[in-house]
From TrEMBL, chain A:
Ceramide-sensitive subunit of the serine palmitoyltransferase (SPT) complex, which is also composed of SPTLC1, SPTLC2/3 and SPTSSA/B. Plays an essential role in the homeostatic regulation of sphingolipid de novo biosynthesis by modulating the activity of the serine palmitoyltransferase (SPT) in response to ceramide levels. When complexed to SPT, the binding of ceramides to its N-terminus stabilizes a conformation that block SPT substrate entry, hence preventing SPT catalytic activity. Through this mechanism, maintains ceramide levels at sufficient concentrations for the production of complex sphingolipids, but which prevents the accumulation of ceramides to levels that trigger apoptosis. Belongs to the ORM family. InterPro entries: ORMDL. One of its GO terms (biological process) is sphingolipid metabolic process. It comes from Oryzias sinensis. It holds the Pfam family ORMDL. This is ORMDL sphingolipid biosynthesis regulator 3. It comes from the Eukaryota. Its main location: membrane. The lineage of its organism: Eukaryota, Metazoa, Chordata, Craniata, Vertebrata. It is found in: Membrane.
UniProtKB/TrEMBL annotation, chain B:
Residues 100-462 form the Aminotransferase class I/classII large domain. Component of the serine palmitoyltransferase multisubunit enzyme (SPT) that catalyzes the initial and rate-limiting step in sphingolipid biosynthesis by condensing L-serine and activated acyl-CoA (most commonly palmitoyl-CoA) to form long-chain bases. The SPT complex is also composed of SPTLC2 or SPTLC3 and SPTSSA or SPTSSB. Within this complex, the heterodimer with SPTLC2 or SPTLC3 forms the catalytic core. The composition of the serine palmitoyltransferase (SPT) complex determines the substrate preference. It comes from the Eukaryota. This is Serine palmitoyltransferase 1. Its EC number is 2.3.1.50. It is an enzyme of class 2 (transferase). Belongs to the class-II pyridoxal-phosphate-dependent aminotransferase family. The chain crosses the membrane at residues 20-39, 161-179. InterPro entries: Aminotransferase_I/II_large, AON_synthase_class-II, PyrdxlP-dep_Trfase, PyrdxlP-dep_Trfase_major, PyrdxlP-dep_Trfase_small. One of its GO terms (cellular component) is membrane. Keywords: Acyltransferase, Lipid metabolism, Membrane, Pyridoxal phosphate, Sphingolipid metabolism, Transferase, Transmembrane, Transmembrane helix.
Amino acid sequence: MNVGTAHSEVNPNTRVMNSRGMWLSYTLSIGLLHHILLSIPFVSVPVVWTLTNMIHNLCMYLLLHTVKGTPFQTPDQGKARLLTHWEQMDYGVQFTASQRVSYLLTSFYTKYDRVHFVVNTVSLLTVLIPKLPQLHGVRIFGINKY
Amino acid sequence: MAAGQQWVLVEMVQAFYEAPAYHLILEGILILWIVRLLFFSKTYKPHETYKLTEKEKEDLIEEWQPEPLVPPVSKDHPSLNYDVVTGPPSHKIIINGKECTNFASFNFLGLLDSDRVKDKALASLKKYGVGTCGPRGFYGTFDVHLELESRLAKFMRTEEAIIYSYGFATIASAIPAYSKRGDIIFVDEAACFSIQKGLQASRSFIKYFKHNDMEDLERLLKEQELEDQKNPRKARVTRKFIVVEGLYINTADVCPLPELVRLKYKYKVRIFLEESMSFGVLGEHGKGVTEHFGVNIDDIDLISANMENAVASIGGFCCGRSFVIDHQRLSGQGYCFSASLPPMLAAAAIEALSIMEEDPEIFSVLKRRCSQVHQALQGIPGLKLVGVPFSPALHLQLERSSGCRSSDLQLLRSIVDHCLDRHVALTVARYLEKEERFVPPPSIRVVVTVEQTDEDIQKAVSCIREAASIFLR
């Protein structure tokens, strides 16, 4: 794929989250996931909420903080080869807000049960902490460096 | 249904009252943070540049002295006084109104003036017009381009070939198509300017090794191997290349290709071979330095050459395995974003290839002439001959340099002028001195072609000898 030729944006990854319909499709896909989980007969409502939260956070972590580089060749000779998607984006304020709202909703519906609390909080933290500006480009223990 | 809803409402409110304190505090913090993020924070940049105070800005502005748009240049700068050629640069070239024997143009096989080539080019001109007015992707691909690519691939016995419309851009586009930031390229110090521009465009780590010094290259490769062993994960994502020329245009000698192939397999690096001077010159059938050394063409990952020397056309080509060459169809900047080769030049190149295939005798004739000229130019007092006996472009350097490059160049220029007066066309090798990484010493470049006769060579050599005895004492 030859990017950066129809417009001047060298790495489209920086702007993909701002495109039209991204927010709507994101919310709808979470809703869809939640509904699918709800339709499993033997799982109770609090567990479903926790599961939604966990799966959402896990997918978010994998896509934004684990996978590096771009799925296409960019004309900047591989500047973003070692950067995760989050580091390539210029800013992603809305996403952290959405994670926290999701956490709030989950806590509400799990009725503050302690085990659920621990699981949900840990899941939330794994997704919130890599988004802090202080952790830009940080690779703990050299994991995922190359 | 109503009972279920009631359960949700009542129990939720109850749960809120019974919630543990730490949980509520954490949620309160989260809500505040969300509000702050959504409404109160500015977009941040991870790399904040240092902010200057107003006074510092004023100081900097006052200190700044603008450089002249055009730097001062002396009136007798060599680039301002050029020799004007009228007519074709064939065996007899008309320079400044004087007809001279051509010892300066890279017309090694004499194909520039070939009637067959000219006829084919004219027929193509009548059929296609002059230009293509488009890059290869936008209706710029003509059947002659595809034919030339397949003919070149067949001639070089590789899987595929790709054509560029400008010889300089060929290797300068090919290198950055494969080598990116973080990759390592080992390149000879005497690499030509187009290779240097390709290296610069690639943004990779460049490691120079001394010219034709395989021990230096092996030392660099060993160092890299040690580093790789320390950090194997990094080594796995780093690509390594060696870029060499078959016949070097700056020093007129040949690269030790079998040794390079041995190093390639020992240290797992890829070889890019630039064959502009050796394509159509070396080897029994003119296939270049791989045929000259008897190296299997599949051992070389990419061969790049321009068609502006022996083939007497314009443009360049790269050939190799399909897997390698196909990548350049989308990533070769000179291929995707420049207009394609004019069809008449492609047709001329096809005809030149046909002549090369039909008559492999010309390569042995050229080789004989080269050794003849090499022999004759030896032992001129004051000038030393640089180059291997089978190179068609030799360099005559000053035996004793005066220390200053411009006075050396002036001396050599006076020799060339002396020869021009006696109807022998020579040239001083020219470089962009400020841009070259390792500027070669000033020299006169003597070119051998198949069209030169014994008398021409004798006359040229005696002119040079005469000039050397006058100007270099």
